């Protein structure tokens, strides 16, 4: 029995545990990435660990999220990250150089290696055969310090691609199809490995679109083999020496196989407000569109924007539509500027943004009231665009561009235009916006603005946990619900006390006040709690407000790890029906929590209703030790 790609990497990187699906393992991490909105916290945590220099093969800090500088905060945070990165031996990609995942793919990705990043779309680099995973900032800081990364051994699902995409059907439609079939919970505990004859029909940027949005399945990550097409990409990036062939064994085994027939796919869209709310564009019909955004780490490659330029060339954007373009990197922007494609886009009437996340994370371009916005992004969670009544539809660049011309959602196969784009023989290579770190840490002084506030640290666990039910939420609550992000809040990612005032703001504006008045307590949640962004702030803000435990029907992987790292106990209802019997401000109490965690089952008393129920604490020994210590930083201090 041969190995699949995932097991090949797991076997070469495992430092602890046993490779058996569901069992905890620790992996050696070769490379890390951070971006600015999670990075400030990650580097504060790195400093708190007291190490001299990072111990990875390469670590890179990107500035791409908090780009609107409406006040001093973002600029100060950029300076902090630049100086702290230099001091600790981390490469620094300047603001304007582009989105972390696009640049990492272009300039830093290496097949067969492991990568963790403080951003949930780190799996983008799986497009060249890396095992690339999103993680909380603290986990990334620990990996930079040479620590291993803990995951549960995933199941490996093969996605067998058959045939070839039809004209105007895109890689985006493949991942939307996977989401339609498997849903936002379908990937929990799994890695998706792409294979089959259809793989060679896809370029590296197309593969990266798919692995990027695999994050929306709740998957640990997604991965493609590294083949001749990958070599073509590395050669054109002037990085042939970083390439290696990486294929599964011919007799590789998989836990499951899902087959997708590329020939049968048609353009798809994910309707508001979930990436798995997928339908055929032709079936949704010609709804009137107010805004179109083409960009984000999912679809802002050279290839994507060249296709868009070919569609727009000689046409005009519909008078009622605002078309916004955000190139993924400076390499992309400069290349389309030099070859004239940007001129075609501008001439059609598009608005051009700098190379950054932009509207994807609500940094500008919020739609108008009830505005319908087609976006090539990966997430359309409620409120994420910055407009609560905004209706975001996720589409491919092809669907976006054709619809921008027509003013209505349009199946792009209706337009007859040749959009073939050849992979350039040479990409334009200029790494001058990637700064090398200082040779030693002694010569760098870290610059800290007044926006940087100390972050909360949990206390060691006592014998008892009690408190009120501070909020009760439904299934599929995202970290965007827990700790919203938009242009007003993103500048405060290094200021937890301020940010905490907005915790759960799109769900229940009274939560922060209630949490403080009750002196902390419990969060009660449905299934897949904490899906989406890796932001650790969705654990840090509740911690600051006194949350001690979350009892949910189930958790998303990264958020569960973030809760544990910050000393908040995640527990699952043993019997889901017990969820229905809990109400806001019920008084809960868990006695003998220390031994209950060991046993894995906790009895929760409801003091108001005079009832009790059981919750499962599905935690490894190490995780229990972390919670006992009052979070990972305390644990590391005690154990090093
Ligand atoms: C996102 O797409 O939600 C983000 C913003 O990139 C986040 C990171 C963050 O919240 O800063 C992510 O995907 O992890
Ligand atoms: Fe940036 Fe959006 Fe990608 Fe997150 S999903 S990294 S906000 S472009």
From TrEMBL:
Picking any one GO molecular function of the record gives: 3-isopropylmalate dehydratase activity
Task: Answer whether the UniProt record assigns the keyword Protein biosynthesis to this protein.
Answer: no
Query: What name does this protein carry?
Result: 3-isopropylmalate dehydratase large subunit 1
Alphabetized, the UniProt keywords read: Iron, Iron-sulfur, Lyase, Metal-binding
The Aconitase/3-isopropylmalate dehydratase large subunit alpha/beta/alpha domain, residue ranges = 8-284
Question: What gene does the UniProt entry assign to this protein?
Answer: leuC2
* InterPro entries attached to this UniProt entry: Acnase/IPM_dHydase_lsu_aba_1/3 (IPR015931), Acoase/IPM_deHydtase_lsu_aba (IPR001030), Aconitase/3IPM_dehydase_swvl (IPR015928), Aconitase/IPM_isomerase (IPR050926), Aconitase_4Fe-4S_BS (IPR018136), Aconitase_4Fe-4S_dom (IPR036008), Aconitase_put (IPR006250), AconitaseA/IPMdHydase_ssu_swvl (IPR000573)
Q: Which domain of life is it from?
A: Bacteria
Task: Give the quaternary structure.
Answer: Monomer.
Top EC class of this enzyme = lyase
TM spans, by residue? Answer: none
A Pfam match: Aconitase_C
Q: Which GO terms describe its biological process?
A: tricarboxylic acid cycle
For this protein, the Enzyme Commission number is 4.2.1.33
């Amino acid at each position: 029995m041969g190995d699949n790609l995932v097991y090949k990497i797991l076997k070469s990187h495992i430092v602890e545990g046993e490779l058996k699906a569901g069992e905890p393992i620790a992996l050696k991490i070769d490379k890390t990435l951070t971006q600015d909105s999670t990075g400030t916290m990650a580097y504060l945590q790195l400093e708190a660990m007291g190490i001299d220099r990072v111990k990875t093969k390469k670590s890179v800090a990107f500035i791409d999220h908090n780009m609107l500088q409406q006040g001093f905060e973002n600029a100060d945070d950029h300076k902090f990250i630049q100086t702290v990165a230099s001091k600790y031996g981390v490469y620094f990609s300047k603001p304007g150089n582009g989105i972390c995942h696009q640049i990492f793919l272009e300039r830093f990705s290496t097949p067969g290696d492991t990568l963790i990043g403080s951003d949930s779309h780190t799996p983008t680099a799986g497009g060249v055969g890396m095992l690339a995973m999103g993680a909380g900032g603290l986990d990334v800081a620990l990996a930079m310090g040479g620590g291993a990364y803990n995951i549960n051994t995933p199941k490996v699902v093969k996605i067998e691609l058959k045939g070839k995409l039809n004209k105007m059907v895109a890689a985006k439609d493949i991942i939307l199809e996977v989401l339609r079939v498997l849903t936002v919970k379908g990937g929990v505990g799994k890695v998706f490995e792409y294979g089959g004859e259809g793989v060679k029909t896809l370029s590296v940027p197309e593969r990266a679109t798919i692995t990027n949005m695999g994050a929306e399945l709740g998957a640990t990550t997604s991965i493609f083999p590294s083949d001749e097409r990958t070599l073509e990409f590395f050669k054109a990036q002037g990085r042939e020496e970083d390439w290696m062939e990486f294929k599964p064994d011919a007799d590789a085994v998989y836990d499951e196989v899902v087959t997708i027939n590329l020939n049968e796919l048609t353009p798809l869209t994910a309707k508001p407000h979930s990436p798995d709310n997928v339908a055929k564009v032709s079936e949704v019909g010609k709804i009137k569109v107010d805004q179109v955004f083409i960009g984000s780490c999912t679809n802002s490659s050279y290839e994507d924007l060249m296709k868009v330029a070919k569609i727009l060339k000689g046409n005009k954007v519909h008078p009622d539509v605002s078309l916004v373009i955000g190139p993924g990197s400076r390499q992309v922007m400069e290349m389309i500027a030099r070859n004239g494609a940007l001129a075609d886009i501008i001439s059609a009437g598009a608005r051009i943004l700098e190379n950054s996340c932009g509207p994807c994370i609500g940094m500008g371009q919020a739609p108008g009231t009830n505005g319908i916005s087609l976006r090539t992004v990966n997430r359309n969670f409620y409120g994420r665009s910055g407009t609560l009544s905004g209706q975001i539809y996720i589409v491919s660049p092809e669907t976006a561009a054709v619809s921008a011309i027509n003013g209505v959602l349009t199946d792009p196969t209706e337009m007859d235009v040749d959009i073939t784009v050849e992979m350039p023989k040479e990409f334009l290579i200029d790494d001058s916006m990637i700064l090398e770190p200082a040779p030693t840490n002694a010569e760098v002084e870290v610059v800290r603005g007044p926006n940087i506030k100390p972050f909360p640290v949990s206390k060691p666990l006592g014998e008892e946990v009690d408190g009120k039910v501070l909020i009760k939420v439904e299934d599929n609550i995202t970290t965007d619900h827990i700790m919203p992000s938009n242009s007003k809040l993103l500048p405060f990612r290094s200021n937890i006390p301020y940010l905490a005032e907005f915790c759960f703001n799109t769900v229940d504006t009274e939560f922060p006040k209630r949490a403080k008045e009750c002196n902390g307590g419990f969060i009660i949640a449905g299934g897949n709690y904490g899906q989406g962004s890796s932001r650790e702030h969705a654990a840090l803000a509740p911690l600051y407000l006194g949350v001690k435990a979350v009892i949910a029907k189930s958790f998303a992987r990264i958020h569960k790890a973030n809760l544990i790292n910050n000393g908040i106990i995640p527990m699952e209802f043993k019997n889901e029906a017990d969820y229905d019997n809990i109400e806001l401000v019920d008084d809960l109490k868990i006695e003998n929590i220390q031994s209950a965690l060991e046993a894995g089952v906790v009895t929760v008393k409801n003091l108001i209703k005079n009832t009790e129920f059981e919750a499962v604490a599905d935690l490894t020994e190490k995780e229990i030790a972390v919670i006992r210590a009052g979070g990972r930083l305390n644990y590391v201090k005690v154990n090093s």
